[in-house]
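Posting this for the archive.
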Amino acid sequence: MSRPESPPVRGRAPRARAPRVSADVRRQEIILAAHEVFGARGFHKASLGEIAERVGITHQGILHHFGSKEQLFVEVLIYREHLDVADFENHEPPRGPEMLRHLVKTAVVNTGRIGLVQSYVVLSAESVTDGHPAQTSFRERFEVLRGLIAAALEACCEPDAMPSAEELSAGASSIIAVMDGLQVQWLLDPDAVQMPAAVGLVIDALLEHWGSTERASTVLS
């Protein structure tokens, strides 16, 4: 005798089964949903369950593709950075003075995505702990970013007044530190901190110190 099926739970629609798609397509669907959820709720308040619900899969389905909530957020950061450079040639970060102006523009855009900024600040700080699943990703991200900014600073300087490689790298690290530190201050007191203006001020001060006539803050005028 066959066993009767259990009646559906009253008041709750059955979960729609997600159509079969390739792993790459499913990963992209998860990243898009996570981008919205992390952006709206921040890292700790965002749940993998809500992200999974939007995609039509289970919580375990997300872990199958990304391994952890932290690693999923790292992928969201990469996706966000791709969006930021979508209008540039070959969808790559700009070079030279335009790269420095792009950093100021990024600060402008960040004032409109508080959830993602908050998530980034929290997870980047947590990633310094031993064994953190996102530590390698953040280390590599900072390494690449330092190289891009140092190259942009070098392109803005005159050959006869060129700073050393060590100075350029220190300048790049300083700009990253200012941008990340400003985000913390802005999250705590957004009315007291003007991130784009402060980022432009620091970049321009470095350029002026090295005798360059280029300026990054011109994008704000």
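The chain has nine helices and no strands. The domain at 15-68 is CATH 1.10.10.60 (Arc Repressor Mutant, subunit A).
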